[in-house]
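Hey, I'm writing a tutorial for new members on how sequence and structure tokens pair up, and I'd like a real worked example in the thread rather than a made-up one. If someone can provide the structure for the chain below, I'll link this post from the tutorial.
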Amino acid sequence: MPSFRTCESLLLLLLLTMFRDTVALTVIGGTGGNGCASFRRTRAVPRGGPDGGKGGEGGAVVLVGRGGVKDLGGLRPQAVLQGQRGGHGSSRNKNGKRGAVTEVEVPLGTVVWESSGTGGEVALGELLEEEQQLVVAKGGSGGRGNLSFATARVRAPLLAEAGEQGETRLLRLELWSIADVGMVGQPNSGRSLLLRKMSHATPATGAAPFTTQEPCQGVVFPGWSRFTLIDVPGLVAGAHQGAGLGHRFLKHLFRTRLLLHVVDGSAPEPVRLIQEVNAELALFADALRDRPQLIVVNKVDLPETRQRLLWLREVLAPFGVARHFVSAETGEGVDALVADVARRLDGLPNEGPLLRVPAPVLRPRSVVPPVKVTRSDAVFVVSSLQAERLVALADLRQFPVRLQLRHQFKLLGVIRALEEAGVRAGDRVRIGSIELLWE
């Protein structure tokens, strides 16, 4: 009997090899480095002066589109991806090193959604081109060193600023594959074997229905040109309600320019089968309902199909699209099909439909929210990111530090907000994680 560790390893291997087209992630930008509070001490400059440098900016989290990435299986579900923290500032006015960017490779066609906090989602963008990048979490800015606080009034500043926290976002990545041609049809219509004949792809094939469990993509080279072809699991009536394997894979057909509707020529009711699949396409998206199609009648090598070719031509004529009669088993008619597909693609737009994801709204860092003061029991709670960053590194045991901190609070509007809230000497005030007595 295999051990628990062996079973766990096999399960992990199975999860890594499964096709994954959606994954939820948490991305966190790197925290900025802290500023430094130091003074110059050299024999040549007896009066010295502040020389604390700034902290480095935190590293961002960036998604990068890669054509060689098959799906989102390389990303662990519910993973937390974080940018590197910025380096701390140091004496002699040395600024901290910027944190390294965390790059995450995703397949082309990936759409990025952010949780809106109200149960909905907002589209951040999509990656459609090789090396295209999308910043999904910015790093925090570095804290100021005490040199930045030097003024004509304050010659020996003792304050330094903590680094800013990076952005945190809850994301859902969804793959909408990019392909020129999509293959649709009922289960066991021979699409996977036809994909093998048309390209160098190696999908699973078999006589049982639903042999195709996930989308499979191949590249076809007709002459000096090329086009990509994608096959999705078979559709049955009610797929939009979860019947069969459901319709979750239909999104991989959305960006295609042309559809090959494969039908089993030996099936007793080929017209009904085509109508059922077309109905499922229309229920998924209007764009798929209007997508150009070719009807591909497969299995003409079977005697029962060969005997009814004339009848098939007649009953399929009302669909008003070109029909090809092929055998994925023997290769009969496949070359003519490939040539016709290549010719038709030349007359179609080079790009399939886009999701039209709106451009993300860029928010400048200079926008500082106003100071807010709330009362929790007997404590006045100050909400001000700038004040929190100043208090985090301050040595409140030193009276000069408290004086300088009070001066900065006045400039930020903290004192005014506290006075309007009714603070008095001796009251407890909480700023960030620091609690102090107001004086």
